[in-house]
Design a protein that fits this description.
By secondary structure, the chain is an alpha/beta fold. The protein is 38% helix and 22% strand. A hairpin with a 2-residue loop joins strand 6 (125-133) and strand 7 (136-137). The two termini are 25 Å apart.
């Protein structure tokens, strides 16, 4: 892929949300004025009318584009919906219960300015954080390119398995939409499912040094409120699939 100047790089912050107000507002508040963010696409997955009215009154900023699904699409399809609405070539997928930091974007910029990194970085590479604070530290994989050839070597590490099921990364819009396939049996394990598809397509992940965000654990988490045993079994099935890619 032809190298591009960081000056031409603009990112869409694509946020999926359901039945959230204050958590959502906090998720983007620290970065909405960052020069790399040219738009914030928020897609509400058919929350109740009170929540929707709250969002319309409070999601007020020149960069914000607010949408509401006519029916609930669930986590996987709503991520796709948010990415599809991005006007930029590159987008950050962010869950609305997490918090994005300026350091996250500064690390993306630093990587993009690096001549060596820019020589190999193309639409087939997802840029991943090296720290989802406070609990998920992926520093052992920092500055590493991960694909189907080496991912199987790391699956014995519990933190790597968390990494595979943790989203909140930078993707190429068109490549994401090309790779995405809906599977109704995939519920809250939608991230490891997509990441399996990504590697199956021959694509890779780059774990960016210094790229961090805050990953909240709370009672309203989609993962915690879903069928936990079902999700864990699905994740285990996908890990076995990764071993055989």
């Amino acid at each position: 892929m032809e190298a591009r100047s960081i000056m031409a790089m603009k990112l869409t912050l694509a946020i999926t949300t359901y039945q959230r107000t204050d958590l959502l507002y906090e998720s983007y508040s620290k970065v909405i004025d960052h020069p790399l963010i040219s738009e914030v696409v928020i897609v509400d997955d058919c929350s109740n009318d009170n929540v929707w009215e709250h969002l319309k009154k409070n999601c007020i900023h020149p960069k914000i584009k607010l949408y509401r699904n006519e029916q609930n699409l669930n986590m996987s399809r709503n991520k796709r919906e948010a990415i599809s609405k991005a006007s930029n070539e590159w987008a950050i997928i962010l869950d609305s219960d997490n918090i994005l930091y300026p350091e996250y974007l500064d690390a993306v910029e630093k990587t993009w300015l690096n001549d060596e990194a820019r020589s190999w970085y193309g639409q087939d590479v997802i840029m991943c954080p090296s720290f989802a604070e406070p609990d998920f530290n992926f520093k052992d994989y920092s500055d590493l390119m991960i694909d189907k050839d080496n991912a199987k070597n790391f699956l014995q590490d519990g933190m790597f398995r968390v990494f595979l099921n943790t989203c909140n990364y930078v993707v190429n819009r068109d490549e994401y939409l090309k790779v995405y396939k809906y599977d109704e049996t995939i519920k809250e394990s939608d991230t490891i499912y997509f990441n399996t598809l990504w590697m199956q397509a021959g694509n890779a992940f780059y774990v960016v040094p210094g790229m961090k965000y805050h990953h909240r654990k709370h009672s309203g988490s989609g993962w915690l409120n879903g069928d936990h045993r079902y999700n864990m079994n699905k994740a285990a099935e996908l890990q076995e699939k990764i071993k055989n890619l």
